[in-house]
Structures are given as structure tokens and as C-alpha cells.
Amino acid sequence: MDRTGEAGTVIGSTGFELSRDGTDALIRSVAVAPDRRAAGAGSRLAMFALEQAAQAGASCAWLFSRRSGPFWQKLGFTNADRERLAAVLPETQQVCL
Ligand SMILES: CC(C)(COP(=O)(O)OP(=O)(O)OC[C@H]1O[C@@H](n2cnc3c(N)ncnc32)[C@H](O)[C@@H]1OP(=O)(O)O)[C@@H](O)C(=O)NCCC(=O)NCCS
């Protein structure tokens, strides 16, 4: 999903991939344009992805994070076991890569 600004420019994105059985979701591509950050948009986009994944049947959400760990921890995420993630979401693009 993309959020489009008043001028038609994309100011943010989010998405997710589901496991084959639909119970696990890998949250992807939550990003906000640099000049629009720190105003709550990233949290709203993350919550939107989580809600959509839950509506699609997922009961557990995972993600890879390099530098935005504190952002995700504020939303309730905790450190996870990468081997477990790879086991439940083996077909996702990031795990394959
Ligand atoms: C991470 C990102 C999406 C946050 O977007 P945002 O619109 O600034 O987020 P919010 O305004 O909802 O911030 C919510 C809280 O997280 C904090 N936060 C945001 N990004 C952070 C970061 N990289 N590190 C630490 N804290 C961060 C904010 O300070 C804010 O804290 P507060 O509630 O105490 O004020 C944005 O910085 C971004 O696009 N980064 C580059 C892409 C990226 O790393 N995406 C994550 C992929 S896993």
C-alpha cells in the first residue's frame, strides 16, 4: 500500500507477505519520506499492515529490522529467533534472499 500526498507524491509505503498456511505475516516495506517522518505516519502504516494481516488470518507478525529496532519495539515487537522466522516463512522474499 502507498500513501499519496496532496501533490500526488508517494510519502509512505507498507505491505506484508503471508505464510502458506496464512497464520504468520512478514511485515514489509514500512517507510516514510524523510521530510514526513516523526509525525506518526510510520506507526499508522505499521498498524495498517498489522490490521490487514490479522484480517487475512495471521496471528503472528514478524519483520527484519536493521536500524529501526526502537521504532518497532514501541509498537510491541521484541527480538526474535531468525531460525524460527525462516522456518515459518520459508517462501518469503527476504528469507529466500
Ligand atoms: C522507521 C520509519 C518508518 C518511522 O517513520 P515515522 O513516521 O518517523 O514514525 P513515527 O512518527 O510513527 O514514530 C513513532 C516513534 O518511533 C520513533 N522512531 C521512528 N523511527 C525511529 C528509528 N529509526 N529509531 C528509533 N526510533 C524511531 C519516533 O521517534 C517515535 O517516537 P515517539 O512516539 O516517542 O515520538 C521511518 O524512519 C523510515 O521510513 N525509515 C527508513 C525505512 C525503514 O527503516 N523502515 C523500517 C523497515 S523494517
What attributes does this structure have?
Aminopeptidase; 4-stranded mixed beta sheet; binds coenzyme A; 97 residues; alpha+beta
Helix and strand topology:
Elements: E1 2-4, E2 10-18, E3 24-32, H1 41-55, E4 60-62, H2 69-74, H3 82-88, H4 93-96
Bound molecules: coenzyme A (COA).
Coenzyme A binds at residues 30-32, 37-43, 63, 65, 67-68, 70-71, 74.
How would you sum up this structure, described in words?
By secondary structure, this protein is of the alpha+beta class. Helix content is about 35%, strand content about 25%. The protein has one domain (about 1-95): Aminopeptidase. It is built from four helices and four strands. Strand 1 and strand 2 (about 10-20) form a beta hairpin. The longest helix is centred in the middle third of the chain and has 15 residues, at about 40-55. It is globular, with a radius of gyration of 14 Å. It binds coenzyme A.
- The total of beta strands comes to 4
What's the total helix number? 4
Bound molecules: coenzyme A
Shape: globular
At the third CATH level, what is the topology name? Aminopeptidase
Please name the fourth-level CATH homologous superfamily. Answer: Gcn5-related N-acetyltransferase (GNAT)
For the record, what CATH class applies? Alpha Beta
User: Could you state the oligomeric state of the chains shown?
Assistant: single chain
Sketch the major β-sheet: 4 strands, mixed
Query: Could you tell me the strand content as a percent range?
Result: 15-25%
Mean pLDDT: 94
Distance between the termini: 22 Å
Cα-atom radius of gyration:
14 Å
Structural class, please? alpha+beta
Helix and strand run: EEEHEHHH
Q: How many domains comprise the coordinates?
A: 1
Spans of at least 5 consecutive residues with low confidence? none
